[in-house]
Design goal:
alpha+beta; nine-stranded antiparallel sheet; about 900 residues; eight-stranded parallel β-barrel
Length: about 900
Amino acid sequence: MRHAAGGRRATALTGSRGESCPHLKALLTACVLLLAACENGGTQAVMPPSPSGGSMAPAKTGVSVALAEVVYQGGLKPGWVDAGWGDREVKGQGPAKVKMAELGGWALRHASPLKPGYGGLAFRYKAPSDFGEFLEVRLDSSEEATFPRVKVSSRHMMGMDGEWTQLLIPMAELNPDRKPFDRFIVRAHKRVDTGWVELDRIGFTLPGVSLSEEAPQEASMQLLEMAFDHGLKTGWTAEGWSERQVESMSPAKVMMADLGGWTLRRQQPLEGRFGGLAFRYQAPSNYGDFLEVRVDNGDKAVFPRVRVSAQHLAGRDGDWVQVLLPMGELNPKGNPFDRVIMRAHKRVGTEWVQLDRIGFTSMMAAETGMPAAGMARVAVGPPRPANLSVDCTGPGQSISPQIYGIAFDALKEGRSTHQFELGATVRRWGGNPTTRYNWKINAWNTANDWFFRNVSPGDRPDFTYEEFLKANREHGLQSALTVPMIGWVAKDTSSVSFPASKFGPQEKMDPDVPEAGNGRTSSGRELAPPMPTRTSVPAPPEFIGEWVRAMRKKDVERGRSVQMYFLDNEPMLWNSTHRDVHPEPTTYDELMERTVSYGTAVRQADPEAVIAGPAEWGWTAYFRSAADVAEGRDKDADRKAHGNVPLLTWYLKKLREHEKKTGTRVLDVLDVHFYPQADGVSPDKGEKTDPETAALRIRSTRALWDANYKDESWIGEPVRLIPRLKKMVEENYPGRGIAIGEYNFGAAQHMSGGLAQAEALGRFAEGGVTAAFYFAYPPPRSPAWWAFRAYRNFDGEGGRFQDVYVPSKAEQGTSLFASRSADGRRVVAIALNVEPDTARDARVELKGCGAVKAARVMTYVGEASGFAEQQASSMGSGMVGAKLPPYSITVLDLMLEPSKAPGKPSPGQGRRPGAP
């Protein structure tokens, strides 16, 4: 991934790993909806008509929808500016006030285009009662895209709060073609008076956990048709064939043994369209997934039987499980129905199943999606035993602290702080734009990620590389810095490579700067690149050496500011990402010539520098040059001209020869990037979270270490990345470390992504990796964020994985990674249960670790609150027990009395940063 960390936008993904658009059904099954009791306190608001035609009393139960992109909440949020035209008051704290007389209105503009994947637009407004239905809402962009004008009506109402009306408008109405947009416009579609219209809590919903950089806001949605809420509702009766207790003022109790169940029947059929059926239930944990639900009408129509599974779960409240079933599954043909049938689809015990708060949501509930990204799972059946072990008998090996690295995102640098709260130890200044960073004027080029534009990092002239280094120092992080070696850097912060004034209209034009095109004709053909001097100035090795000397001069007073230098970024993609200045594919010889010349410049300016390269993008570039795979060229001709030796092997051999010949070492760490290539796994591959892809995501981590794992993508063979790189180093240039300069297993906000991230960090420690950098950083309090915290601050008080890795073993379906302190008195182990439906009773044997004096067990199951402590069970001085819920990360924090002093740990494989 090369885009968001340094680029202008995260929305324009181009190059070898393309972006995919999720199907609507994925949208409907991804958003987090939290079902919560919502007492209205006797509000006498007029509610929308019920789908059956009658008027509705205020409902007692509601659905809360997290806002992903908050636009206005008592004031404009970062990234949004007031771009309206009507008289308005948008200052200080409080709702915005707009006068909409004479068809007036208000426009809000975002600094960059937003992706089209939101579920809906939510906001509240207050207006004089005589205005009636007057509001019109639409999206817009600087491009030629046309967006519908949506007149707000009763179907968009979610509820009333005093004089405030709460709205939710599905994106299917606002943006049916799913195009990027950067503006929100609200106006009157008819003439109204001069009274103020107040607006507040404006934001967009998004499938999955909120991506907002701030605490997620919520919008409440009432259920339109209630069937049961602590008793049957008017018009509904309880029927069925099983024993049950249906009393007022309490949940219903149903006996579902022997495939039992019950029926809720309505006197009059429901003919309207609903979004979904919501309910909550409580059942013994050993029942697992057992519920089946269908609607019916007693006529000839056939309705699907829907088994309630993890994809339908919307939250937990103690022992209660909250469910939302889309009507698209229950009633795909939209037929009238008059009953709801709930039963067991498998044999369960004779204990009561409790059900409550059963009702139907509006269409908006389905449009905003449904959930279960990263929530606790319900186990199927009783826990299975799992025998795990930690072996402290050997000396172990030191863990490099730099494996807990992240990239930086220039667009979010000034707007978020959570990147400093997940426990990262080092940040990397990298990504495509850094290939052309001009340190003297703080400018880079966004390359083909965003219209080949010269800009300041993050469009902020004040955010320089020095600010990046300063932020890291202030938060106790080390810094890794990418230095350009392509030979060109940006000459200013305004030039573009393919201006419309010279090249004419193009396939895509920058919505912010219409003069900037993407370098392709309207038919998609690549335009011949301009002279590099249109945007850039030469940047020879001396230019980079001067930069390093400037930093080292300041380091005299502040201490070392850069712990690792990367020699550029993905040079085998320059003819794509930076084709405006480097249209020819990079060859073996060019890579070597630039590595030696620029690496030497860095070494001369900073003799103790730790230098990493070649920062190649992925699998193909480990073995071939860009010239070997370029269209229109003989396949592998460049490789064959160099003895048919794989690129990285040749690279290491030649640099070893160079050091032996000249005495100058220009490489300390072999660095590559790695992203899973299977469809739906990584961010550039669609990030699906269906059960099959979630399991594939977790399996794909085996490419890091398992020689028996055949990669399930176009690669189609074992990757065994860490042992492969270590072997290359050992055979061709011993003493080098290895780094994974970029990686991301996707779905940061789904528990499968959190488990994959926890697995990767454990494998980096186990494999003796020198450094690794997650690209860019996970959203706050997401499963991937908490995966970092498992290793770096699991208890919020500094509890972390220790500094010495010790071997461990785990059964299939689980993983275990173990560490100890240098004195052997503390062992911290991380156990993963990667089974989505099965809990495990873990018995952890401690071999040679000593007697357990105290034990803490902390478990994370996907909740935003993070790790919760569970009771540890001692099974003797050398054994500890713990419960591992489905899809969970568990930390075992053990204080020990070692039987003997531990041996001195080995330094691990490869050169460590700072080593002589």
